[in-house]
Write a structure and sequence with these properties.
By secondary structure, the chain is of the alpha+beta class. It has 6 helices and 15 strands. The two termini are 35 Å apart.
């Protein structure tokens, strides 16, 4: 086992920010990437979609009737693609206004849904703050009308049943929030990437966190590729590939690490070179300690290293956040 990081060298400020759902500058070095990743651009290499769940004071959900020829007359949640130059929240407000006539403010991200960089959807819980419901007389290319639906949405002809799990998440969040309010933070990022929080807990209860060592010690950051196959691969595939290649998760370390959920994200339109990158802060699950699990497995990559977390307050915050993340649905 490598000698432990001195406490003064550990990225405690970065870790505090990530645990709070905040943003942190993305550096020029990416773990597992021999060359700098290419910037991404809306409409060219990535597609971001926003979707909103709104309830009124009586608990009815906002639904809109589609105007698109392929699903005309069917009902759905307000949703649509982000446009170049928009922030995630600006796209949310615009889509809700265009399709329903209402103005809204986001409360929290409910889920991150993805099919790889080629299609990423941000599902929000939001609240109405103004406007009036669109009527049939105001039908346009965006939607035919909007209404507050008090019953089971499945009683209506829906455009797709994929909104039902999101509605379930929204109902559960209103009843008992499973994670803190999580909203995008505005900080530029050229590529599409994931910042990793990978903790390991020993049988004795000691806690380690995986760090990158290139430059200043930091939480590892992995970039998503932009080749056609990579754009359609799962968003978390480069994370799992890095862990497979750099950590010997052999028995007794099975099961291998997996993605637990999202802690936060950062994006600012018109980033470096006009890019539209996003950095997702994700927390990973480490395999439980086995019979020889007193220490985490030694990284095969010298650019990665484990940090033993000795501060009890920080240790408690990390363990608590493992149970309080925004779900990622692939």
């Amino acid at each position: 086992m490598q000698p432990p990081f001195p406490m003064g060298d550990a990225p405690t400020a970065e870790l505090d920010t990530v645990l709070d759902g905040g943003a942190w500058e993305v550096g020029a070095t990416f773990e597992g990437s021999p060359a700098p990743p290419a910037p991404v651009s809306l409409g060219r290499t990535v597609c971001y979609v926003v979707l909103a769940v709104l309830f009124n004071e009586e608990g009815a959900v906002l639904l809109v009737q589609e105007a698109k020829p392929e699903c005309r007359g069917r009902w759905y949640l307000p949703a649509g693609r982000m446009e170049p130059g928009e922030s995630v929240v600006e796209a949310l407000r615009r889509e809700v206004k265009e399709e329903s006539g209402l103005e809204c403010e986001p409360i929290t991200l409910l889920a991150l849904e993805e099919r790889g960089p080629a299609w990423i959807r941000f599902a929000f819980l939001a609240c109405p703050v103004g406007g009036t419901l669109k009527t049939l007389e105001e039908a346009d290319a965006e939607s035919l009308q909007a209404r507050w639906w008090p019953g089971d949405p499945r009683a209506l002809p829906l455009r797709s049943l994929d909104i039902l799990p999101v509605l379930d998440l929204a109902a559960r969040y209103r009843q008992s929030p499973p994670h803190p309010p999580t909203l995008p933070r505005e900080l530029p990022c050229a590529p599409l990437c994931l910042r990793l929080l990978l903790p390991f807990t020993s049988a004795a209860g000691d806690l380690w966190v995986l760090l990158g060592t290139a430059g200043t010690p930091h939480l590892p950051v992995v970039a998503c590729g932009t080749s056609p196959p990579e754009l359609r691969a799962g968003l978390c595939r480069p994370v799992l590939r890095l862990l497979r290649d750099c950590l010997p998760w052999d028995p007794p370390w099975d099961p291998r690490p997996g993605v637990l959920g999202l802690l936060g994200l950062q994006h600012r339109p018109g980033g470096p070179g006009g890019s539209d990158g996003v950095c997702f802060n994700v927390v990973l699950s480490a395999p439980p300690a086995g019979t020889h699990g007193d220490v985490p497995p030694e990284p095969s990559d010298p650019a990665l290293r484990w940090w033993h977390v000795e501060d009890e307050g920080l240790r408690g915050r990390i363990l608590q956040r493992l149970r309080a993340t925004v779900p990622i649905r692939s």
